[in-house]
Amino acid sequence: MATITIREALNQAIREELARDERVFLMGEEVAAYNGAYKVTKGLLDEFGPKRVIDTPITELGFAGLGVGAAMVGLRPIVEFITFNFSILATDQIVNSAAKMLYMSGGQYNIPIVFRGPGGSAYQVSSQHSQAIESWFAYFPGLKVVMPSTPADAKGLLKSAIRDDDPVIFIEQERMYGNKGEVPDDPDFTIPLGVADIKREGTDVTIVARSLMVPIALKAADKLQEQGVSCEVIDPRTIRPLDIDTIIESVKKTNRVVLAEESHPVCGINAEISAAIMERAMDFLDAPVKRVSGIDVPMPYAKNLEDLVVPDVDRVIAAVREVAYLD
Amino acid sequence: MSKQTAEQATAAGAEEQSSPDVATQPDKVDLATLQRDRDAAKERQKSRLGGLETETLIELYRQMILIRRFEEKAAEVYSAGKIGGFCHLYIGQEAVAVGTLSALRKDDYVITSYREHGHALAKGMTPESVMAELYGKATGCSKGKGGSMHMFDKSLNFLGGHGIVGGQIPLGTGAAFASKYQGTDQVTLCFFGEAAVNQGAFHESLNMAQLWKLPCIYICENNQYGMGTSLERAMSLRDISKKASAYEMASEFVDGMDVLAVREATARAVERARKDYLPTLLEIRTYRFMGHSMSDPGNYRTRAEIEKYQERDPIKLFSASLREEKIADEKLLKEIDAEVRKQVEESVRFAEESPYPAPEELYTDIYANPIDPSARKL
Ligand SMILES: Cc1ncc(C[n+]2csc(CCOP(=O)(O)OP(=O)(O)O)c2C)c(N)n1
Ligand SMILES: [Mg+2]
Known about the structure:
The structure holds two protein chains of two kinds.
Chain A: E1 2-5, H1 6-20, E2 24-28, H2 44-48, E3 53-55, H3 60-72, E4 76-80, H4 91-98, H5 101-104, E5 114-119, H6 134-138, E6 144-146, H7 151-163, E7 168-173, E8 180-183, E9 197-200, E10 205-209, H8 213-226, E11 231-235, E12 238-240, H9 244-254, E13 257-260, H10 269-281, E14 290-292, H11 303-309, H12 313-323
Parallel strand pairs in A: 2-3, 2-4, 4-5, 5-7, 6-7, 10-11, 10-13, 13-14
Antiparallel strand pairs in A: 1-8, 6-12, 9-11
Helix pairs in contact in A: 1-7, 3-4, 8-12, 9-10
Chain B: H1 6-12, H2 31-47, H3 54-79, H4 94-101, E1 109-113, H5 117-122, H6 127-134, E2 158-162, H7 168-182, E3 188-193, H8 200-211, E4 216-222, E5 225-226, E6 229-230, H9 231-234, E7 250-255, H10 259-276, E8 280-285, H11 303-311, H12 314-324, H13 330-353
Parallel strand pairs in B: 1-2, 1-3, 3-4, 4-8, 7-8
Antiparallel strand pairs in B: 5-6
Magnesium ion is lined by residues 193-195, 223, 225-226 of chain B.
């Protein structure tokens, strides 16, 4: 076990998979000579050369589609978006080509591709560069959506995503690249997609959190423990397919649930999880499901306003206390 | 920088180097002028016959007439309510699919738009599998899940029909990228309509293809309309082959009513792609004789304009060339037509007798690696 950052864990995953499989290549803006806009791909050009690590023009729709076409005929592209904000220009190729190809070809053309890059809130870059859009992608059958919250998860899940035969949207949290944690050394360490992780066991309230909200939920759980409330923190890790069973089992045990996410609340993942809990565990609930989401506004620039948008430890604690009827 | 050589310019023919302006066309056309144009086109085509095997020429004819009869039948069964959805016919454009694909090797890739029945047949897909797909049957080339707009055949490297205008252009570019990456000498033919040229996907793709020297041949089937909108109403620079120069890409303008002109121009592009990994843009001027889709009566075009192009019908033109040069007689051509009609009838019978997809098929083919529920910690 080595203690490394999420950035390093992702770099290792890409490096190992490039070394493991000749069909894997990496492309995107600034991934090669510049070593990655966020330095996730540092050193890869030197190690693998320009055939495998490719700087693209600023042409998101074009290179996303090129990747899908290459995946149709035997390659396994990793397509990096500088941030997922720019993937919006490529959504036609992701949604209409990658997600649906296998189905509309009657099972003939699967698309083994990873679209990855940072997403979610960043620091003070305002509305267009700071947003969480995972629910868009998670909406579509045919796509898999992954959002790791620790270095180990980042590495294990990215390796699985690259080895997967389907299109995977892999959203890294822009604020979390420097977060550290232990990662197994085994080059074949992988974490299966579609499996939630119980990040902390508890008995009184379930908190479902992903990505940036996981460390926040864990901090909240620590503080709540001091207040005598035992929280179970579940990180789905994969948003689609969602390991709803693990969530339901936990809710059946704790009978109370808080859903935390930094994205907008409307039509979001928490809305979906909430509906599933109603359908499958309504009778087990001792309090209504409580959502904690990013505030429903475009992201502002001013620090004090930005801080109000992204859920923090205090908001999670307040939500837990609310469902536990403590106040 | 224009990479048109003198040879290419000749091949393109002199008669249609620039767009005819539909808006200024007279309602009535002068028959004598039409016939003169047609005869000139025929002479150009005949001059291309030399050096081609009779067998090859007959095969080109057979494929064109197969597509024509297939599409006529598709229209008939569509009107009879036996197939549904959108149905974009290829009648009038047969020389493009047949001419271009005849210059390919079997393992080359083809990708195109929703107007793809003709390309599918020319790539070697059976009328049965195409018709059954139109019928939404389990025996269709996409198991009934794709329909008219999404026909695929992996065994033939037919990368499908795609429904988002221009969406297939980056995909085809990717297939060509993969060929170069894998070190094969396969080429990709990427078809799209002229209206797709206004999409960013076209420009983004051509830029990457020339920048990275990808063996992709971009084939703009310029039938002069995107649904009801004429080229004149939608494009500032209408000389589409010229757009290649923005990317320093080789290009040619081709008479799409002449199957041999199409074949020759494609062969030149294929050679560039196979030998030197170089892309080409071909603007192939053609015309669709039917509406945009089965629901379109096509009122935005004048009778005279349609008649003008019908006079240049690629099949009529080619059959006249074959007969006049004594490569085939009337009897042989009639026999081929009769055979093809039987084949098409047979495809309808096959489609009608085939089963619909089983209800369980609804849930298959969404993921190649479905999530294994047993992997979950419960
Ligand atoms: C992105 C997108 N916009 C609009 C449409 C609707 N549409 C389908 S075909 C078409 C016209 C396309 O014309 P062209 O590219 O010239 O091809 P043609 O139909 O003439 O073969 C339009 C507008 C679509 N399918 N996709
Ligand atoms: Mg058109």
